[in-house]
Design brief:
alpha+beta, Arc Repressor Mutant, subunit A, 2 domains, single chain
Length: about 280
């Protein structure tokens, strides 16, 4: 009985969690119930759910953030920076299922990137794990469980536990938003920045990789070209876009990808308060 007791306790916790999620299915309390249920087994501070359809502005389906965090983390993100998100890169690659820790899929210079400096570093998020699920109309959903940067780091056992729950979480989310097509409006195609047409496909690819946080060496390795060739491409990109810094490149990229996004506003905005984990 000694060996089976921990397993029975876990089974009991997950059984209660399933009952709570099922009771909240299709209701407005679904996402809070999902977070509460998952926290029975592994602790997280918040959850947010996005639906992606190509490079159109993603839909923020739900979150458990307060209004200030929602504006910066969800609304600002959807205005353009999502194009540089490591989770979105997996969506672009066609991932429909799976559970991924952001730090495991982020580029080698992620924390030095303009995406991190101007957007992600302002959010107060320490770590995230994204659960992917397929949706109707070709959309891909990502349910992101996160911890603030003042909370304990995600451990390997935390990740293993969420991966074990991944199929159930994905199925619950897919069912909850199964009629999303009846409630959403089609997003208009993104307007291309005039200077964007001057870039080659390879140059556009390198712009995205640079801003996502890839080093010259990482870009060269992934594209099977030499570091010197990468530097030549970057020089041509800066010349064509008439920029001289990576910050200006980021601003140009946001102009290419999102008319409503203002990097200047983001830089000047006041930092949001950080959360402090209360002792238990």
């Amino acid at each position: 009985m000694t060996h089976t007791a921990p397993k029975l306790r876990l089974l009991e916790q997950w059984s209660r969690a399933v009952a709570e999620i099922t009771a909240a299915q299709r209701g407005t309390d679904f996402v809070p119930a999902l977070l509460t249920s998952v926290k029975r087994l592994v602790d997280f501070d918040f959850v947010m759910v996005f639906a992606y359809a190509g490079t159109a502005r993603p839909l923020t389906l739900a979150d458990t953030l307060d209004a200030q965090h929602h504006r910066i983390i969800a609304e600002d993100y959807a205005d353009g920076p999502f194009l540089l998100d490591p989770f979105f890169r997996l969506v672009e690659e066609g991932r429909k299922t799976g559970c991924y820790r952001l730090h495991d899929i982020a580029p080698d210079h992620f924390r030095r990137s303009e995406y991190f400096r101007i957007h992600y570093g302002r959010t107060g998020i320490g770590e995230e794990i994204g659960v992917f699920f397929g949706m109707e109309d070709g959309l891909t959903g990502v349910t992101s469980f996160g911890r603030w940067d003042t909370s304990p780091p995600i451990t390997r056992s935390d990740l293993d536990m969420l991966r074990a729950l991944d199929p159930a979480i994905g199925a619950f989310c897919a069912e909850h938003w199964s009629n999303l097509h009846a409630r959403r409006e089609a997003s208009p195609p993104r307007a291309a920045h005039p200077e964007f047409e001057r870039l080659t496909l390879r140059e556009r690819e390198i712009v995205t990789m640079v801003l996502r946080g890839h080093s010259t060496e990482s870009i060269a390795m992934q594209l099977s070209i030499s570091p010197g060739t990468v530097k030549i491409h970057r020089k041509n990109i800066y010349r064509k876009l008439r920029v001289s810094t990576q910050a200006e490149l980021f601003a140009a990229f946001m102009g290419l990808g999102a008319e409503t996004y203002s990097p200047g506003d983001m830089v000047e905005a006041v930092q949001i308060p950080q959360h402090r984990r209360q002792s238990k």
